[in-house]
Structure formats: structure tokens, C-alpha cells
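User: Fold both of these, please.

Assistant: Here is the first one.
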Amino acid sequence: MRPVFLANRFLLGLVLGLALVVGLWSLLLVGQAGRPVPTTQWIEKAYAQKLAIADSITQPKLVVVAGSAAMFGIDSGMLEQAVGRPVVNLGVNAGVLPPYIQNYARQAIKPGDWVLLPVEYPMYHGRYSINYPFLDYWWENPGFRHIDVNTAQLAQVLWLTPLSRVLSGYRGLPDGFAVSGLYGPQNLDQRGDQLHSEAVQQQVWMRELVQQSEVETYGAQAHRWNANWASWKALADQVTAAGGCALFVPPPMLDRPAYHQGRELRYYKALPDQARANGLNYIGTPLETMYPMDRFFDTNYHLNAESRTLYMQQLVSWVKPEFAKCSAVHN
């Protein structure tokens, strides 16, 4: 009997010890939740500025919703002239993923607004996946009520948070901290477009980042991801129900030979039809918004300022007649 008793005591001690560790870790996590950290401030401040721009517009407007590909790639002034409405570019960072991007979009969009969504490809997939930027942003902006997550995603957040992020939360912002560098409100114009991204301002390390950027394998990965069409359709349906229109279009992206063959080619060719089959009003074709390396500034999604015109000419040719149809329907 004694070996059995000892084994039971060992298992009980193990369970209690594990519960103690989990409890202490949970307390540490909760204690730093909601505290600002330096790494997320450029996103915080950029969204705050863009939401203020959106809020200041009292007439029906067009809201651009996506990640940083839109921040760098959209010329909101050109779009404004084409569609005859004020434009606010709400693109900031695809890394915070659809739950936050869609939440901010809902704050910016008013009844009757049009919405243009040049959404980066991974955001159509991986419905409940997370990455470090999302995790980092989560702890400063805990999404327990207003962000669309499920239990599995929340478990990932709790499990994958590194100690370094927890310590950063407790340290908070250094005295006198201010957002600086290429990203943030200090480099946004009055409509939310990125400033200071002209080709002449590209530094060597930026060019190297473009050159060394990954050849994306969205086609190979898509079948392993959980589809995320439903959350985008829910946003689009809300826009439509409020008397507006939502158009999905391809984002600008660095072209690679791999995207023109095999599974990757099939993925990009099929994506518009797949989006439409899932209820999204998707126009345009991805292969037409892929550009050579010299068109990009510091990532494979960030066009330089001069190349915005190239992308916008293609975009306007697609969206102008569609928004005109929308206007006719609601008038």
C-alpha cells in the first residue's frame, strides 16, 4: 500500500505545483494587462489619429480598411478625386490581425459610408491564429469583450506570451517616450497616408529588407488555415445594411516568379472567385497588383511613394464604376 500512497502523494504534489505555477503566471499576466509598452505605441497613436480624422468627417466618406500595405500603397487624395467623397486611410498594421482591424473599422465607419478593403492575403485565412504583434497588442488592449476571439485563441495568448513581454508591460513607457521612426502618426498626412516613403529616401537596410523578404507560400498554406471569410462578410454586411458599400480588392505585393506557377498561381487566380463564393464583393485580380522589387520601400507589401500612382490607376479603374453603381442604388 505504501508505494501506491507515495505515488498518489507525488501526483497530488505535481498537480498542486502545476496549479501554483499557472496561478502565479496568470496573476503576472493580469497585473500588466492594459499597460502601454513602447513596441505598440506607433500602432496606438496611428489608429488614434486616423479615427480622429474619420470622426471629423460629417458627410458620407470612403474608409480604406487593411494593414500597412494600404498605408503605403493608397493615395487617398487620388481616390477622393475619383469617387467624389472624402477618404480616410485606416490602414496601419496587418500584424494585429482582423479582430483589431475590424474593430477599428467599425469605430470609423458611419451609416452610408463606402469601404474599400485591399486586405493582405493572410487575413482571409487563419481565423483564430495569432502572431507576436497580435499578442503584444492584445496585452495593451485586452480584447475580452469587443474583439472576436474564441477560447482556443485566448488559450494561445496566455500560453505563448513570453516573459520578456510581461516584464515590458510592468516597465511601461520610459519617461519622455515619444513615437519616432518611419512608422507612426508623425509620418501620416491629413488623410492617413504614409509620408516620407519616396524612393530617394530608401536607405540601404530598407532595400535589403525588400530583397531578403520571404517568397510567400499562401497557396501552399491556405488549405491548412481556418478560413476567415465569415468575419469579413460580417463587416461588409454591416456596411451594406447601413446604406453603404464594401469592395474587396487585391493589395499591392512584391512579385516573385513562384507566384506564376503551380499552387501559388492557382491560389491567386482562384482567390477572387473564392471570395465572391463566400459572399464578398471582390473585384480585380491579384496578379495585376504585383510589382517588381524597385517599386517597394522597406517590405514586400510597402510600395514607395512614386509607385502609388501605378497601383492607384489600376485600383481606380476597378472601383470607380462599382462605387458609381452603389451610389445609383442608394439614390
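And the second sequence with its predicted structure:
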Amino acid sequence: MSKFIISQVLVLKLRWSACKILALLFVVFCFSSIETWHSGYGWHDQQRIYQLLLLCSSALFAPFLPQTALSKPSLFLLIGFFSLGLCSALLAELPGWAFLEWGRYAGLLLLSLLVSGLSKRQFHMYFLLCVMAVVGFAHAYQFFLYYVMAFVTGIRILDADMLYSGFSNPRFLGQFQVMLLPVLVLLLDACRRTQRGALSVLLFLILIGHWCISFSLGGRGVWLGVLVAHITLLLINYRLWRASVLQVCAALLGFFLYLLLFKLIPVWLEIDLVLPDNLRTTLSGRERIWQIAWEMALANPWFGVGPMHYSATYNPIAAHPHQVVLQLLSEWGFPAALMVIAMAFWAGYQNIRYLRRSAANEVDAGLWLAIVGAMVLAQVDGVFVMPYSETWLALLLGLALARCGDGLTTSRLQRLACAIFCIPVLIVLGKVLIGEVPAIFLGSNDQVSQQHSGDRPRFWSQGWLQN
């Protein structure tokens, strides 16, 4: 009996230590978009490094920490998808890069499962969401500080692309915003219910600020994602209307703030203004890269050209298709892509059933809005390519899984599959951290940079693959 008690105590201590390590790496990853800590690394590469650290730790602790039980259809579809991915990687032109993409997606899955198990406790869920809000506050503060500095320093030039920070492209900030905006509303409603007036005001100001930033950066995909997500929520359960009303009010106030800061004041003070065209109707070259991805898919229908191998064939526009379905079709093949689509519909169906219940509240509404908004944006942007956005999406999916899970005990098959996946994830991602990361700022991509000018981020900032 005493041996059993000692073993249980040791297990609890191990789990507590694992949770602390995961929490620390999670916070460091989140703040990797606020400040660059390492000379020689850009925003994209820094966020990728800390993503890999977080995913490696998730793979290391996954066999020992609780998880939410997956339904049998989801579990079999996931096993089938990753099994086909292994075949695709083995047949790829550059298997090393292909296994790296496979390992990253497997690591994101493990991270989601860990978050789903840990987030059964409300404290863990709100800790994750509050950190997201703090990051949102930091970005809004930096943006408006840089706006003021344009006047204080006497530069008298307002360029929206120079005011934001933390991302190598304004679209990548938009990918984070499409998930942040519903989460801010979720926390705002929680503060209202607990009568925390000052914090509610601060959260609402952050929300207004990010809408103003979005309008100034011209995030058309963000607006589409938010709109579609809110429409679907109201169609599913109109009783969850409060989130939509708060979001509309914040968007209107953010638009008025945008007009004041970027229209009226510059005209009044005769300041030069550089803003993207919010009314542009072109696809910015996406039709060409979509056509390339579709041709790749047709030429390699069963296993694709290999995970990440869209980036192995140079084009002057982008190193990824900017469309998640075409990305899967061209790189993983039709069978794997159909499995992901089937899994997405199954998960959506289960979430809709949960949202229709009387037990569903603003937390569930906020998670639905964030995830659906990101999925819509992924149809025109690289949400499943950029390290910061794809990691946050995995975290939010874990929270949603914890909320709508059926409470069943994790099956032996799920535990076994996770334990098996952990080994290659640790090997592949750990090899990159040890072998590649130190060489990035030393010019490991010089050959690619000389051949193709400009950053086209995929795994690293210079996204084109080479031997």
C-alpha cells in the first residue's frame, strides 16, 4: 500500500513539474511576438524557435499528462491522416523537410490534446486566455505609442506598416487578431459577470484599439473571418447574441478612431500618410499560386508532392498556397486532405450540437468565433503555416475540445497512438533545434537568398527548400 501511495505522489510531482515547464514555455512563446531577444533572428524565425521548444516539451510530457478523449471517428481519421503523411514524406524529393512538416503538425496535435486535458480546470483555461489578452494589450500599446512618436519626433509621416510590431508582415498580425478579437469579448463578458468594471473598460479599449489597427492595415481576410463566424453563431444559437453586439460596437468605435487618427488628424496637420487600400478587390496574385497548387495536386493525387514541398518549386509570389485545402491537396494528397475535411466537419457538427444546449455560454461562443474566424481566414491566407497563428489555433482548439468533450476516459488506443507519435516528433523537431537553429543567423540560407530575392516565409523566413 505504501509503495502505491509513493508512486502516486511521484506521478503527481512529475505532472506538476511538467505543467510548470509547459506554462513557462507557453508564456515565452506568447511574448516572442513582442520583443526580439536574439540578434540575427527576425520575428518569424524567433517565433518558430519558441514554437518548436513548446512542441518538443508537449511531446515529452504527453504520455504523462491528462487528455480529453477523442471520439472514435476523429481518432481513426487522425491516425489515417498522419499515416498517409508518413508515406508522403518518404516519397518526397526532400524527405528531411517533409518529415519536419509532419512532425510539426503532430506536435500541434499533441499540444491541443494536452491543453484539452489541463483546461478541465477553469484556472488553466483563463490563464491561457488572459495571457492572450496581455499580448493583445502589448501590441495595441506599441502601435499607438509609435503613432504618437511620429508627431513627437517631428518625422510627420504616418506609414501604417511602420506602426505595428511583432510580425514580419501585417497579415500575420491579422491572423492573430482574428482569434484575439473574440477572446477579448469572451473575457469582457466574464469581467462583466464578476463585476470587475475597471478591467472591463480596459479590455473594451484594447478591443477598440485592435479594430482600429485592423482597419489601418487593411485586413480584408480578418473582417471576412469575423463576419462569417458571427453569422454562423447567430444561426446556431441566437441566445448567444451578446458577443456579436459587443463586437459590432467595438468595430464601429474602432472605425471612428481609425477615421480620426488616419484621416482627420493627418489632413488637419498636413502630414504625409501611407495606408493600404481597404477597398481593393484583387486577389494579390493568389489566383496564380492557387493554380500552381491545384496543378501539383492533379499531378500527384495520392500522396501529393510531399509535406512542405510546395516550397520546393520556386515561384515569384509565395512559398505556400495561401489556402489550406489546396495546401493539403498539393502536399499531402487527396486522401489525406479528405480525411482532414471530414474531421473538420465532424468536429464542427459536435460543436454545433454543444452550442445548441442551454449549458453553452459566452466562453463557448468566443471559442467558436475565434476558431471559425481563423478557419475562414485560412482559405485566403497561411494560418496553417505561420508559427504564431497555427500555435494559437492549436491552443484554442484544445480549449474547445475540453469544453465540449463527452467526459469519457481516454482510450488505450489514443494513449498508445500519442506515445508512438511523441518519439518521431521529439527526434525530428529536436534535431532542428540542436542542428539548424544556431546556424540560421550565420547565413545558412545564403544560397537560397542569392537565387531568390525577398523573404517568402514558410518554415523559416526564407521559405524555399534546399538540400
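The beta strands are 157-159, 272-274.
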